[in-house]
């Protein structure tokens, strides 16, 4: 009996997360350096000023160096938070050195909600997204909550571009996709 797409995706998430979590500290640091440089090149090329990132979790490529470099360049950095009223959606809040971070229901650090720090999606230039797996077609497999898929819906008609950040070990030949999956503009691999 053939596995359902859902079962294949769940199995793939488990396998790739395990591989990613087993990367050495050196492999993680090297990947962070490579991805940071690629991201900075893209940011310069697009003259991006408002950049959404995420705080790394569960073996994801660290975004710490990139965030620090963006702050030093005077760029505005934003982090996602779980939308308090619109279940399954994200808001993006400005992130500075003074930002207070609190754990969300998934134990991921996010800025404390302050409406003065929210930036509408339409004003972002680039949204760097986490992912579990990806393929050459630009398809991304996330953790399964659909937060980024909902956020990136119809991104082609919006101002921002979505760009994934990933380790090489997260690439697969072809992802089993669903109708709601949003292919990314680009995926930067370290």
Give structural notes:
By secondary structure, this protein is an alpha/beta fold. It has a single domain (5-189), classed as Rossmann fold, CATH 3.40.50.10420. Helix content is 28%, strand content 21%. It is built from four helices and ten strands. It has helices at 5-21, 25-46, 64-72, 147-152; strands spanning 50-52, 76-82, 90-94, 101-103, 109-111, 126-129, 133-134, 140-141, 161-166, 186-189. The protein has a six-stranded mixed beta sheet with strand order 3-2-1-6-9-10. Strand 7 and strand 8 (140-141) form a beta hairpin. Helix 2 runs parallel beside helix 3. The N and C termini lie far apart (37 Å).
Count of distinct strands? 10
As a percent range, the share of helical residues equals 25-40%
Indicate the CATH class: Alpha Beta
How many structurally independent domains?
A: 1
Number of helices: 4
Question: What is the spatial order of strands in the main beta sheet?
Answer: 3-2-1-6-9-10
Instruction: Assign the CATH architecture.
Output: 3-Layer(aba) Sandwich
Pfam family, one: 5-FTHF_cyc-lig
GO molecular function: 5-formyltetrahydrofolate cyclo-ligase activity; ATP binding; metal ion binding
GO biological process, one term: folic acid-containing compound biosynthetic process
Protein name: 5-formyltetrahydrofolate cyclo-ligase
């Amino acid at each position: 009996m053939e596995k359902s797409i859902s079962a294949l995706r769940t199995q793939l998430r488990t396998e790739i997360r395990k591989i990613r979590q087993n990367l050495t500290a050196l492999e993680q640091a090297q990947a962070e350096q490579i991805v940071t440089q690629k991201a900075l090149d893209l940011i310069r090329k697009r003259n991006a000023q408002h950049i959404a990132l995420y705080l790394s979790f569960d073996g994801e490529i660290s975004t710490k160096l990139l965030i620090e470099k963006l702050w030093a360049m005077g760029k505005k950095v934003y982090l996602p938070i779980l939308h308090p009223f619109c279940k399954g959606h994200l808001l993006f809040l400005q992130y500075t050195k003074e930002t207070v971070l609190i754990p969300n229901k998934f134990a991921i650090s996010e800025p404390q909600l302050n409406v003065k720090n929210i930036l509408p999606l339409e004003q972002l230039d680039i949204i760097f997204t986490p992912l579990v797996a990806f393929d050459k077609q630009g398809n991304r497999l996330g953790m399964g909550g659909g937060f980024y898929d909902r956020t990136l819906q119809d991104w082609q008609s919006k101002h921002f571009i979505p760009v994934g950040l990933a380790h090489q070990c997260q690439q697969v030949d072809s992802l089993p996709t669903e109708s709601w999956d949003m292919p990314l503009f680009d995926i930067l691999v370290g």
